[in-house]
Design a protein that fits this description.
The complex is a heterodimer of chains A (about 270) and B (about 325).
Chain A lengths: L7 E10 L2 E11 L4 E5 L6 H9 L6 E6 L2 E2 L5 H6 L2 E3 L12 H8 L8 H6 L2 H20 L15 H13 L5 E5 L7 H16 L3 E5 L3 H7 L2 E6 L2 E6 L1 H6 L1 H20 L1
Parallel strand pairs in A: 3-8, 3-9, 6-7, 7-8
Antiparallel strand pairs in A: 1-2, 1-4, 4-5, 9-10
Helix pairs in contact in A: 3-5, 3-6, 5-6, 8-10
Chain B lengths: L1 H5 L3 H16 L3 H26 L7 H19 L3 H23 L4 H21 L1 H4 L5 E2 L4 E2 L2 E2 L3 H23 L2 H11 L1 H6 L4 H27 L1 E2 L6 H14 L4 H17 L7 H15 L4 H12 L2
Antiparallel strand pairs in B: 1-4, 2-3
Helix pairs in contact in B: 2-8, 3-8, 3-11, 3-12, 3-13, 4-5, 4-6, 4-11, 5-11, 9-11, 12-13
The chains are: A alpha/beta (about 270), B mainly alpha (about 325).
């Protein structure tokens, strides 16, 4: 476990929707190169927590600090330039664009042409396009989609789209990457590929925050796990400790959960 | 072949060739005038292609910006003694500023709500042009003085043909440039998913606003040319039916296609002229033809045909 200065510091964050405390008093810290997973049953508030951390929702309580700076009030698109990128649980792909164009959009922040230059079609725009395309192709190669670069994104299979989203998020050169169920709906082979990919990303020094239902994947690649139940933290710690925490098994995992936990053991 | 179909310059070259051909085969100056109207309305619709086709934001009040551009060329010289050509530029700038002011609050709306808000804007502009009789001449409109281009007085169908063709070529080039640039990628991205575009660090509201302002400037320049060519302008230019026509041009030609926009404009400008034989049924026949086109080419003329051709190519 790498625990230097925390890259992401979420402190007592919470939000209520119509009186219901969807997320309440959640705190956690994630360091560079660490894989931090958030698990919990459906409706536990995992995606809401993600939306709070990435700024889609404004928290009613608590704060989010990135690299020491308070970003609680910073709008989502400006968090990207501070080093925070994410993927989405329900795919948010630019379906009418090609795979490589999707990743090129992810490079937007590193592009240096002005609106005026874009309108006039100056040579600098085409130089920029070439640089961006190179970078996007390299990223597609990294997630194993190089062959499909010029295919319309709408024609890609589900597992490929999941990896395309990761490539697009990586295009922003993030310090912290939030992945919302990257393996959901993927088969064993695709899950394995995503598993490797996440490990590689973390090894490169990026902090990874992961929401995932696939317990086997979570237990294998996480440095630490946060268990959420009804919007509140139930337990936090290394996978083994969480897995064996009787409170987690009893109170949250329940019947189906303990079977999943067994499967993770095996 | 596929590379040619996809090249950025193909529509521009095709357009330039057609522009060069039309005067050779046009039998009368009336036909040249109709062709010039096609270029002018294409220019206005091209702005909507950027706003609707690229960025996916609808505007049902775009004739309002056309009206602003048109009346700038009418009012500037008549009431303020300004140079008419300068007034086209000023009208475009004014239209852009108004688009910026109006766009900031209303572009937060999406889909139907944005459509209604822009519709409201168009109605207000038409209303002001109607009722500010002292300034605009009211429902009767006002006459527009001739434009002088570097000492050359632009008159006659052929001259107007070339001026409007030149303006459209410039407009088409800019639209194609935007499509092939980081800005174009950002606009197409937010068309598909605003949340993901923001997730890539794109300032979605700023990009939408930029597209709205550019679209307004296109419409204003087209309006200025229209007023100057006709020598007369009425509030009808800013009417709701004109706004709808502009949207129809963009959709019939193929959402997001520059060449398609010109075809859509040609369709809606030329057809009413040829349908006069149907007399009182003219509008009904036009409506029917639009329906038939959309049923058989649901993606619009250019994208549907392109898909057909690409399918048959190896």
């Amino acid at each position: 476990m790498t625990s230097k200065t925390p890259l992401l510091d979420v402190n007592g964050i919470g939000i209520s929707f119509g009186g219901l405390r969807a997320v309440d008093e959640v705190s956690f810290k994630v360091g560079a190169g660490e894989v931090f997973s958030i698990i919990g049953p459906n409706g536990a508030g995992k995606t809401t927590l993600f939306n709070l951390v990435t700024g889609i929702y404004r928290p009613s309580r608590g704060s989010v600090r990135l690299d020491g700076a308070d970003i609680t009030a910073v709008p989502p698109h400006r968090r990207v330039s501070r080093g925070m990128a994410r993927t989405f649980q329900n795919l948010q792909i630019f379906f009418r664009m090609t795979a490589v164009e999707n990743v090129m959009v992810g490079c937007a922040l590193s592009e240096r042409t002005s609106f005026l230059a874009d309108m006039l079609g100056l040579p600098s725009v085409f130089r920029q396009n070439r640089v961006t395309r190179e970078k996007a192709l390299a990223l597609l190669d990294r997630v194993g989609l190089a062959d499909l670069a010029d295919a319309p994104a709408g024609a890609l299979p589900y597992g490929a789209l999941k990896r395309l989203e990761i490539a697009r998020a990586l295009a922003a050169d993030p310090k912290i990457l939030l992945l919302d169920e990257p393996a959901a709906g993927c088969n064993a082979v695709e899950t394995e590929a995503i598993d490797h990919l996440i490990a590689e990303i973390a090894k490169a020094g990026v902090a990874v925050v992961l929401i995932e239902h696939d317990m086997k994947l979570v237990m294998k690649i996480s440095d630490r796990v946060l268990v959420l139940a009804q919007g509140r933290p139930l337990a936090e710690g290394p996978p083994r400790a969480v897995r064996e925490n009787p409170q987690v098994i009893a109170a949250y995992l329940g019947d189906i959960g303990s079977r999943e936990a067994d499967r993770a053991h095996g | 072949m596929k590379a040619i179909l996809r090249s950025r310059l193909t529509p521009l070259i095709a357009l330039a060739l057609i522009m060069a051909l039309v005067p050779m085969i046009a039998p009368t100056s009336f036909h040249l005038r109709v062709a010039a109207l096609v270029w002018i309305f294409s220019l206005a619709a091209l702005g909507l292609t950027i706003l609707m086709g690229y960025a996916g934001q609808v505007s049902l009040g775009h004739a309002g910006f056309l009206g602003i551009g048109a009346y700038a060329v009418a009012i500037g010289p008549a009431r303020l003694g300004l140079d008419p050509l300068l007034c086209i530029v000023l009208g475009a700038a004014l239209s852009g500023v108004i688009a910026w002011l109006v766009g900031r609050p209303i572009l937060k709306l999406k889909g139907y709500y944005l459509a209604i808000a822009t519709l409201g804007f168009g109605v207000i502009v038409a209303l002001i042009l109607h009722s500010e009789t002292e300034l605009t001449g009211g429902p009767d409109g006002m006459s527009v003085s001739r434009i002088t281009l570097f000492g050359w007085r632009v008159t006659g169908a052929l001259n107007w043909y070339w001026v409007s063709a030149g303006a459209l070529l410039i407009g088409a080039l800019i639209a194609l440039n935007i499509a092939a640039s980081p800005t174009g990628r950002a606009l197409r991205a937010l068309h598909d998913s605003e949340v993901a575009a923001a997730g890539a660090g794109i300032d979605v509201s700023a990009k939408k606003l930029a597209a709205f302002v550019v679209a307004a400037v296109y419409a204003a320049v087209a309006g200025g040319l229209l007023a100057a060519m006709n020598g007369l302008i009425t509030p009808e230019a800013a009417s709701f039916s004109h706004s709808v026509e502009l949207v129809a041009m963009v959709i019939i030609g193929g959402l997001g296609s520059v060449f398609g926009t010109v075809l859509g404009a040609a369709f809606l400008v030329v057809l009413p002229q040829t349908l006069t034989a149907f007399q009182e049924y003219e509008q009904a026949v036009l409506g029917l033809l639009i329906m038939v086109f959309m049923i058989f080419l649901p993606q619009g003329i250019v994208p549907s045909l392109r898909a057909l051709i690409e399918e048959r190519l190896p």
